[in-house]
Structures are given as structure tokens and as C-alpha cells.
Design goal:
Blueprint: E1 8-22, E2 33-36, E3 39-64, E4 67-68, H1 75-83, E5 89-114, E6 117-123, E7 127-130, E8 157-163, E9 169-172, H2 180-188, H3 191-195
Antiparallel strand pairs: 1-3, 1-8, 2-3, 3-4, 3-5, 5-6, 5-7, 8-9
Length: 196
């Protein structure tokens, strides 16, 4: 991708939240367990949740002194803007939409089980790996209304659409990994879909 391919974008309020679960333990170690005569009496399970949030963004055309730039502003434009702030470099939405990977986070849950009954679970908060979570209060794992779907050997996943402006939360009942981003862009990638 050339530098000229970079566009100015503005985030919308529409997000796609995707969470995957995995039972891989830390450093591929098995959790401790207690066996009596070959029967597991107590054990611990470790669940790792990976969270990805994608934001729909609208591309903007950039203008310098009223004329559209075909590239991002250079040093000349920035110096002129610095001398007269807010007057020289402007931008306007152009109606083109794209998807921005806004956030990645990781959470660990450890569950203690005795005599096949859950005793206690301990969950860490999400550790921010990339970006800031635009919808931290809309967690999928642990929500009884959100199904995690597993296809083949892939880890279970759940997905939902969330609009931070309207607070509309819509669970995707049977998410398909390869179709999540294209379907998100197709469904919300126009002004009419964002308003409604």
C-alpha cells in the first residue's frame, strides 16, 4: 500500500464485537486436579477469551484552501494550517465506508470444580492488547443470551452488533468467521443503515 492510499476516516457509532474462547492453559500446562482411585474429585479449568471489536468508519476527502487533495496533507499544508488553525485544512465525508480493527483484548477465567460441581470461578478483567474498547460494557462471554458457536476444529466464537449512540445490541445467532467483516460492511456501510 502506497502512502497515497491512506485516507482520513471518522469512526461511526456502529461496532462488531467478536469473542473466541479457548481452553488452552497458560504455557500449555494442565490445571491441577485431585484423583482418588482413578476418579477425578477436584480440578481446575482455564478458559481464555479473546475479544475483538471492529468499528465502521466513514472515509473523508481532505481539502486544502478549498481544493481537494489527492493525498494526505504534506509539510506545506501543515505549516500553513499551523499559522491559521482550522481554516486551511478541512475534510468532508465522502460516503465510502470501511472497517477498522479498533480493539483486541484478552481475559482469563479459572474455574474450580469438585465432585462435578462448579465451586468458584475467578475472572481477570480484559487486558487491553490493541486500542481502547469502544463497548466495554457489552461483553459476550458469560451473557446467557449469547450463543458461542463451534465449527469443526475452530475455537467457539460469538458475535454481536452494537451501536454506542442508540445502545442497540444485536446478537448474531450463527456467526460464520469468514463472513463477519464483509457482512458487517454490507449491512451498515451506508448512511441510511447508520441512521436507522
Amino acid at each position: 500500500m502506497a502512502l497515497d492510499d491512506i485516507q482520513k476516516v471518522s469512526p461511526t457509532a456502529q461496532h462488531l464485537i467478536v469473542e473466541y474462547t479457548s481452553t488452552e492453559s497458560v504455557a500449555n500446562m494442565a490445571g491441577p486436579s485431585l484423583k482418588t482411585r482413578g476418579i477425578t474429585v477436584a480440578k481446575t479449568l482455564h478458559v481464555q477469551i479473546m475479544r475483538y471489536v471492529y468499528t465502521l468508519v466513514e472515509a473523508e476527502d481532505v481539502y486544502f484552501e478549498g481544493r481537494r487533495l489527492d493525498h494526505m496533507p504534506g509539510i506545506r499544508e501543515f505549516v500553513t494550517e499551523w499559522l491559521k488553525p482550522g481554516e486551511q485544512i478541512t475534510s468532508r465525508p465522502n460516503g465510502n465506508y470501511s472497517v477498522l480493527h479498533a480493539y483486541t483484548g484478552k481475559k482469563n477465567v479459572v474455574v474450580a470444580i469438585a465432585m462435578q460441581k462448579k465451586l468458584v470461578d475467578f475472572a481477570t478483567p480484559f487486558v487491553d492488547l490493541v486500542g481502547d474498547d469502544p463497548a466495554p460494557d457489552k461483553v459476550l462471554y458469560g451473557n446467557p443470551m449469547v450463543p458461542f458457536v463451534q465449527r469443526g476444529d475452530l475455537p467457539p466464537l460469538a458475535a454481536a452488533y452494537y451501536n454506542t449512540r442508540t445502545r442497540r445490541f444485536e446478537v448474531i445467532e450463527s456467526p460464520e468467521r469468514a463472513r463477519l467483516l464483509p457482512e458487517f460492511l454490507r449491512r451498515f456501510g451506508n448512511r441510511e443503515a447508520l441512521v436507522g
